[in-house]
């Protein structure tokens, strides 16, 4: 029985590290693994009330953008907010709409339809906004690549761009382009979500009005968007999400409360996992299968009846999204069967794969084969693709190298989108395969488990669990701590659950035993006749007032004697 992942144990903390002057060795190691090197950094990381909040004025052009909006407030100009259809986009739109309405702005919003319009600004709708008398367009979670669209309307309307995507070429000629990734940006932390950029712009605007404390009523939406867009939960993001989660636990928004009720999310203990697996999929379902307007309306409504109706609609859409994802995955599996590992990137598509589902299918393919995956929806002469990648491969950079074949592309290193004429797909596929081969040919392409520390079972206890819990919220770049324990003897092995899918046994090391659970590991129950090495996370089990530690398997292999 071999490990399914590459096991990489983090570098042990140097004896001279100042963290050792205050914290136990395991705590030092966990902090060190997350880039914490000094006592001051550790204190900030472990103290939510302190945290890191950077000066919004360090973002490029943000003062110009706030001043242009302020002038619209004074003159009564109509402002349009132009968003995007994922959770980051709809939270960004909600933050900006609610924030501007609160201070008396004349404001309307538009969230493009995924299949009918796609990402970014679109000339027909800009023309419609101009006819409605809009004088200022504020983009959220989009716009940094819309050079031509903004140029076409520059003499008719002003534009303030707020975005967090990588510029793929020249920057639009707008009144303000606010993006932490712009060349010359002084912002200390680049990887904030689009909703955080929108929040920062409101922060400056509210400060101009002497109402800076009021902007924090939108922090719950920042947390939703940041987690849903899988931003790293380090640095400033960690503080924004921590503070947002505290607001969500006492949430006053009827729509979010209804989503938590239907998803059976415990409001008083809502965490990153609840957002990722229960709240975000329901909000995203609207934009994947229908119009994201439903999810947006859910976030901004103050009417409990409307909130309940919209939440029920999103619940139904989410169930449909699950069915369509399963059907599309089956379709793709049949198409690529026998060809999965011929190349270093998976590229496939069909007119039967809904455009809003393509990214989910790409994600499942990438996770299963640990390769970059590009899945396309064929639409007449064109195709619209969604990409998901692996840490070893920057997918947006690769798309840039193939831009001669594409109509449009954009995104992040691990997730992106593109459109292409179908006649160019063969040449694009050949070019992408060549790039992927050069990057990945000599790499071990098993996914990696980054192990925080090697520990004996006797060291795994309630005190350690509570110490580890102080590192939450866990998510991207701040994973739930992983431990490795070697030479564990399995005893009392049994399976559990429907179809005996899951595994349970008592792990023995020396005089210490711990209960070990392996979700989905029931198939190896008969192989546990010799000592094993286990990579796991910890979980508290409470039963009749007793609290014990369970070990949840992430990977397992036969023990290798050194």
**Secondary structure tally: strands:** 18
Largest sheet: 5 strands, parallel
Beta fraction: 15-25%
- What is the global morphology? globular
Specify the structural class.
alpha/beta
Strand adjacency order, main sheet: 3-2-4-5-6
**What's the number of helices?**
17
Low-confidence stretches are: none
CATH class of the largest domain: Alpha Beta
The assigned CATH architecture of the largest domain is Alpha-Beta Complex
The radius of gyration computed from the alpha-carbon positions, rounded to a whole number of angstroms, is: 25 Å
CATH fold naming of the largest domain: inorganic pyrophosphatase (n-terminal core)
The averaged pLDDT comes out at 91
N- to C-terminal distance: 17 Å
**Quaternary status of these chains?**
single chain
What percent of the residues sit in helical stretches (DSSP H or I)? 25-40%
Q: Write down the domain tally.
A: 4
Brief characterization of the structure:
It is built from 17 helices and 18 strands.
List the SSEs and their pairings:
Blueprint: E1 6-9, H1 25-33, H2 39-46, H3 62-75, E2 78-82, H4 87-102, E3 106-110, H5 123-131, E4 134-140, H6 147-153, E5 158-162, E6 176-178, H7 194-208, H8 219-228, H9 235-248, H10 254-262, H11 272-289, H12 293-300, H13 304-336, E7 346-350, H14 358-369, E8 373-379, E9 382-388, H15 395-401, E10 406-411, E11 415-421, H16 425-440, E12 448-451, E13 453-454, H17 462-469, E14 483-496, E15 502-509, E16 512-518, E17 532-543, E18 546-558
Parallel strand pairs: 1-12, 2-3, 2-4, 4-5, 5-6, 7-8, 13-14, 16-18
Antiparallel strand pairs: 8-9, 9-11, 10-11, 14-15, 14-17, 15-16, 17-18
Helix pairs in contact: 3-7, 4-7, 4-8, 4-12, 7-8, 8-9, 10-13, 11-12, 11-13, 12-13, 13-14
């Amino acid at each position: 029985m071999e490990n399914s992942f590459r096991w990489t144990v983090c570098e042990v903390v140097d004896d001279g590290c100042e963290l050792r002057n205050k914290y136990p060795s395991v705590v030092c190691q966990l902090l060190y693994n997350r880039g914490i090197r000094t006592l001051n950094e550790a204190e900030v990381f472990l103290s939510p009330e302190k945290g890191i909040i950077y000066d919004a004025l360090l973002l490029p052009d943000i003062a110009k953008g706030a001043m242009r909006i302020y002038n619209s407030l004074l003159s009564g100009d109509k402002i349009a907010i132009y968003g995007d259809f994922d959770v980051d986009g709809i939270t960004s739109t909600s933050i900006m709409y609610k924030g501007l309405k609160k201070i008396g702005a004349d404001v309307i919003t538009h969230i493009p339809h995924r299949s009918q319009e796609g990402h970014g600004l679109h000339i027909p709708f800009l023309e419609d906004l101009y006819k409605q008398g809009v004088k200022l367009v504020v983009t959220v979670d989009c716009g940094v690549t819309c050079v031509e669209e903004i140029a076409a309307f520059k003499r008719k309307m002003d534009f303030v761009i707020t975005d967090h995507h990588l510029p793929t070429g020249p920057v639009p000629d707008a009144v303000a382009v606010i993006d932490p990734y712009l060349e010359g940006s002084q912002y200390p932390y680049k990887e904030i979500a689009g909703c955080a950029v929108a929040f920062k712009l409101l922060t400056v605007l509210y400060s101009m009005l002497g109402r800076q404390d009021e902007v924090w009523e939108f922090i719950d939406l920042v947390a939703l968007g940041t987690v849903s867009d899988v931003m790293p939960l380090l640095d400033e993001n960690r503080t924004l999400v921590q503070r947002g989660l505290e607001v969500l636990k006492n949430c006053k928004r009827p729509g979010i409360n209804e989503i938590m009720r239907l998803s059976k999310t415990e409001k008083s203990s809502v965490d990153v996992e609840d957002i990722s697996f229960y709240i975000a999929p329901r909000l995203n379902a609207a934009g994947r299968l229908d119009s994201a307007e439903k999810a947006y309306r859910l976030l901004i409504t103050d009417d409990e009846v409307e909130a309940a109706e919209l939440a029920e609609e999103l619940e139904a859409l989410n169930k449909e999204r699950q069915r369509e994802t399963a059907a599309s995955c089956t379709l793709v599996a049949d198409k690529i069967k026998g060809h999965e590992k011929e190349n270093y990137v998976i590229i496939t598509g069909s007119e039967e794969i809904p455009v809003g589902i393509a990214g989910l299918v790409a994600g499942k393919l990438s996770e299963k084969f640990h390769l970059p995956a590009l899945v396309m929806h064929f639409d007449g002469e064109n195709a619209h693709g969604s990409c998901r990648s692996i840490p070893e491969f920057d997918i947006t950079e690769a798309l840039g190298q193939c831009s001669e074949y594409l109509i449009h592309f954009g995104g992040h290193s691990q997730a992106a989108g593109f459109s292409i004429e179908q006649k160019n797909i063969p040449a694009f596929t050949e070019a992408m395969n060549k790039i992927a081969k050069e990057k990945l040919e000599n790499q071990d392409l098993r996914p990696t488990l980054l192990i925080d520390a090697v520990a004996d079972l006797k060291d795994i206890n309630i005190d350690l669990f509570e110490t580890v819990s102080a590192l939450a919220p866990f998510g991207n770049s701040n994973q739930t701590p992983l431990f490795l324990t070697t030479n564990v003897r399995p005893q009392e092995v049994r399976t559990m659950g429907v179809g005996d899918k899951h595994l349970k046994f008592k792990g023995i090391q020396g005089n210490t035993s711990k209960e070990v659970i392996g979700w989905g590991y029931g198939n190896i129950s008969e192989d546990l006749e010799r000592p094993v090495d286990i990579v796991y996370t910890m979980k508290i089990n409470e039963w009749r007032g007793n609290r014990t530690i369970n070990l949840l398997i992430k990977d397992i292999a036969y023990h290798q004697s050194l």
